[in-house]
Amino acid sequence: MKLSIATLFLSLILLSSLVLEPAMAQPRSPFCDGKCKGRCNKAAVWDRCFKYCGICCEECKCVPSGTYGNKHECPCYRDKVNKKGTPKCP
C-alpha cells in the first residue's frame, strides 16, 4: 500500500514538472536565437550574454550587428538599463 502511494506521488510530481516546464520557459523566436548567437559568439560568459541578448531582442525586435558595439543600429537595445543604471543588453 505504501509503495503504491509513493509511486503515485512520484508519478504526479513527474507529470506536473513536464506540464509546467514549457509554461514557465519564455519562448524565443528563431530570429533572436540566430542574432544572439552571433552577437555573443566571442563573449567570455556566453550563457549570460545569450540570456540578456534574448530578453532584449524579444522586447526590441532587433540586435546590433557584430559581437561588440554598433548599438546605434538599435536604439531600444542601446537604451535598456538594469536597476543599477548600467546597460542591460550586451
Automatic annotation (TrEMBL):
Q: What does the record list as coiled-coil region(s)?
A: none
Q: What is an annotated GO biological process for this record, any one?
A: gibberellic acid mediated signaling pathway
Q: Mind listing the UniProt keywords for this protein, alphabetically?
A: Gibberellin signaling pathway, Signal
Question: Per its UniProt record, what InterPro entries does this chain match?
Answer: GASA
Residue ranges annotated as transmembrane are none
Which branch of life, at top level?
Eukaryota
List the signal peptide residues: 1-25
GTP-binding: present as a keyword of the record? no
Family membership noted in the UniProt record: Belongs to the GASA family.
Name-wise, this protein is Gibberellin-regulated protein 8
